[in-house]
Amino acid sequence: MDGLTIRPSVASDRPNLRRAVIELQDHERSLHSSRRPGAEIADDYLAWMLGQAGEKGAALIAEFDGAFAGFVAGWIEITENIAETPESNRFGYVSDVCVLPAYRGRRVASRLLEAMERHFHGAGVARIRMWSLAVNRAARAAYERSGYRAYEVLYEKLVDPDGL
């Protein structure tokens, strides 16, 4: 994609990242009732996400001809799941991928994920994982085009207090 650049985030990206977090959260809120409004969580979530990415990962910015187009953030997770191999217990975790509406359909998400994969590879990570709302078909399709496959499936059921 001509004109697309991907680079590490810097402090001056914070307003664009905040706007993208709101966009992402509000989009997911339109898909599932468990999500709070983007403006309510943006500042705290952004501080947490950048803190996690700054310690053991990265936040990368996509720009199209110099304009903010989206971002990806992730970090290395180390778990102690006794049922999994040691290699599986250390993985790159992609917390967020957001492409602003004007830039969707141009494989920006794929390029952001490729850049994050290079970052994790350089840190000796063999696996990368991420979550997606099951109903977010567009995100899941983008991830699958980039070679990601379902690993575990989380099921949810709302308990009807009147039906018990």
The percentage helix is 25-40%
Lateral strand order in the biggest sheet: 1-2-3-4-5
Q: What is the rounded Rg?
A: 17 Å
The biggest beta sheet is recorded as: 5 strands, mixed
- Mean of residue pLDDT values: 94
Percent of residues in β-strands: 15-25%
How far is the first residue's CA from the last residue's CA?
55 Å
CATH class group = Alpha Beta
- The arrangement of helices and strands along the chain is EHHEEEHEH
Could you name the key traits of this structure?
Aminopeptidase, 23% strand, 5-stranded mixed sheet, 164 residues, single chain, globular, 4 helices, alpha+beta
Write a structural description.
- The protein is globular and about 55 Å long.
- Helix 1 crosses helix 2 (38-56).
- The chain starts with a strand and ends in a 19-residue tail after the last helix.
- The model has no long low-confidence stretch (mean pLDDT 94).
- The protein has one domain (4-145): 3-Layer(aba) Sandwich (Aminopeptidase).
- The chain has a 5-stranded mixed β-sheet with strand order 1-2-3-4-5.
- It has 164 residues and is an alpha+beta fold.
- The chain has 4 helices and 5 strands.
What's the gist of this structure?
The chain has helices spanning 14-31, 38-56, 108-122, 137-145, and strands at residues 4-8, 57-64, 67-78, 90-99, 128-130.
How are the secondary structure elements laid out?
Blueprint: E1 4-8, H1 14-31, H2 38-56, E2 57-64, E3 67-78, E4 90-99, H3 108-122, E5 128-130, H4 137-145
Parallel strand pairs: 4-5
Antiparallel strand pairs: 1-2, 2-3, 3-4
